[in-house]
Amino acid sequence: MRISVSSDMDEPVARSLVEDLRRRGHDVRTHGALRPGADAQWAACSEAAARDVAEGVADQAVVCCWTGTGASIAANKVPGVRAALCTDASTADGARRWNDANVLALSLRLTSEPLLKEILDAWFAGEASQDPEDRQNVARVGRLDAARNS
């Protein structure tokens, strides 16, 4: 899978994230502080990773900032992106299942390396629900994007 990763800070957990994704066999594209010379501001690098998803350059993205909140807000401004701030494995599973989230947002402050592994395990094990109500909700979010762009 092609995954874009952004971080506004070159923190150990951000480097571990990139290493873990590569160990899992993913093709990783980096943005922000993880890429020399790139704009490391959280809004800019989160947008860049989210745009990769929206434009089909990446299948998914992981965006990181100190709290994860700014990264998720910026990513969610990109039409077609459903970013979810996940601080535990259960939230990551639910975000993939019920929200068909395609961007994972992480807090550099709260995410330890063992927790990172649990979150990634749940994220990649999760699949979008085929329940009609869940699909209707995801479709509604898509219509919100379309309305915003018209």
What features would you describe in this structure?
- By secondary structure, the chain is α/β, with parallel strands linked by helices.
- It contains 6 helices and 5 strands; from the N terminus they run E-H-E-H-E-H-E-H-E-H-H.
- The protein has helices at 12-23, 42-54, 69-76, 89-99, 113-125, 132-148, and strands spanning 2-7, 27-32, 60-65, 83-85, 103-107.
- It has a 5-stranded parallel β-sheet, sandwiched between helices.
- Strand 1, helix 1 (12-23) and strand 2 form a beta-alpha-beta unit.
- The N and C termini lie far apart (31 Å).
- The model has no long low-confidence stretch (mean pLDDT 96).
Distance between the termini: 31 Å
Main beta-sheet strand count, sense and barrel state: 5 strands, parallel
Strand content: 15-25%
| DSSP E strands, number | 5
The order of strands across the largest sheet is 2-1-3-5-4
Q: What are the defining features of this structure?
A:
150 residues, alpha/beta, 5-stranded parallel β-sheet, 5 strands
Compact description:
This protein has 150 residues and is an alpha/beta fold. 49% of the residues lie in helices and 17% in strands.
Task: List the topology elements.
Elements: E1 2-7, H1 12-23, E2 27-32, H2 42-54, E3 60-65, H3 69-76, E4 83-85, H4 89-99, E5 103-107, H5 113-125, H6 132-148
Parallel strand pairs: 1-2, 1-3, 3-5, 4-5
